[in-house]
């Protein structure tokens, strides 16, 4: 069984209602060469240690994605043990808080034992560990989701200062739940398990073809990405009873996978205002690796396909 540990400094779930997290995602394996295991970013035009590039005002990052079975997880083939040893001490020394994110679009994360989950948590444990994010998009069965939630229930007791969030895909249809099958499965499992003090992080991105069956349309008949993000949060609050101070939003900066969906600097201002007014738990974006300009076009893992923000322009817009 998981056993209790001492209190961890940083952003914990007991204080999250009064403190909003801003934590952009870093795709761990992007720009990481096969012969080194430290966090690297390429937004300046060359591969540079992440901690040498991010603004000093950025205090928290979300690291994506750990996949596989807890305790034996990996980061796109890099073992969790190797990754943690190479990076957790560096983050701790720089006093950068971090969230460990699992799963994602191309992978899944499972946890069938308490011992495995404890091993997983302890591997990334430091004073700067804020918590864990479970990005559930595909791959997990209902039974595996139920198992994961049971592990989280025990971990909340053993690690009372850590926060636990579920990242779910969503549409943004006016006055409809719009979570989709996997989101409904997760919400039902949470309710069945009577899990408390969790956070739902909505992926407010990639709605597909612009239509009122997917998003809120702007005057140009395209998805209004800022207003759609707000609508998704309102739907989660209304139909699932999740309070705003336990809702987080994650847009995809610049061009989305659907080319006519573009999240702009104006959209940053829109959701920041809503988040402040309604005291949302957190704002994130996908991803730091994309926070540099390039020409509009298909979404790229290395730049924003927006071209009007400047180097780390979205990060700075969220921060200031």
UniProtKB/TrEMBL annotation:
InterPro entries: GH, GH18_Chitinase
Keywords linked to the UniProt accession: Hydrolase
GO molecular function, one term: hydrolase activity
Superkingdom, natural source: Bacteria
Hydrolase as UniProt keyword: yes
SUPFAM superfamilies listed in its UniProt record: (Trans)glycosidases (SSF51445)
PANTHER family xrefs: BIFUNCTIONAL CHITINASE/LYSOZYME-RELATED, GH18 DOMAIN-CONTAINING PROTEIN-RELATED
Protein name: Glycosyl hydrolase
Organism expressing this protein natively: Undibacterium jejuense
Lineage of the organism: Bacteria, Pseudomonadati, Pseudomonadota, Betaproteobacteria, Burkholderiales
């Amino acid at each position: 069984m998981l056993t209790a540990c001492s209190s961890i400094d940083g952003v914990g779930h007991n204080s999250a209602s009064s403190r909003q997290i801003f934590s952009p995602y870093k795709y761990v394996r992007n720009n990481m060469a096969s012969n080194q295991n430290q966090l690297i970013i390429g937004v300046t035009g060359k591969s540079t240690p992440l901690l040498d590039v991010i603004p000093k005002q950025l205090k928290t990052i979300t690291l994506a994605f750990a996949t596989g079975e807890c305790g034996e997880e990996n980061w796109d083939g890099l073992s969790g043990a190797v990754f943690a040893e190479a990076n957790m001490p560096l983050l701790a020394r720089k006093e950068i808080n971090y969230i460990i994110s699992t799963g994602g679009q191309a992978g899944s994360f499972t946890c069938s034992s308490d011992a495995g989950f404890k091993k997983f948590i302890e591997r990334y444990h430091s004073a700067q560990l804020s918590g864990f994010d479970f990005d559930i998009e595909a791959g997990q069965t209902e039974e595996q989701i139920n198992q994961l939630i049971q592990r989280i229930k025990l971990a909340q007791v053993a690690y009372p200062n850590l926060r636990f969030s579920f990242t779910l895909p969503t549409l943004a249809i006016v006055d409809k739940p719009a979570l989709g099958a996997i989101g409904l499965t997760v919400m039902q499992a949470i309710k069945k398990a009577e899990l408390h003090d969790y956070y739902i992080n909505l992926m407010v991105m990639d709605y597909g073809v612009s239509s009122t069956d997917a998003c809120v349309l702007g005057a140009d008949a395209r998805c209004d990405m800022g207003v759609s993000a707000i609508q998704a949060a309102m739907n989660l609050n209304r139909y699932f009873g999740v309070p705003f101070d336990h809702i987080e939003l994650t847009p995809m900066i610049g061009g989305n996978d659907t080319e006519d969906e573009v999240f702009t600097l104006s959209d940053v201002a829109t959701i920041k205002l809503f988040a402040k007014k309604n005291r949302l738990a957190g704002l994130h974006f996908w991803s730091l690796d994309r926070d540099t300009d390039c020409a509009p076009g298909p979404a790229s893992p290395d730049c924003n396909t927006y071209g009007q923000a400047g180097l780390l322009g979205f990060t700075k817009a969220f921060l200031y």
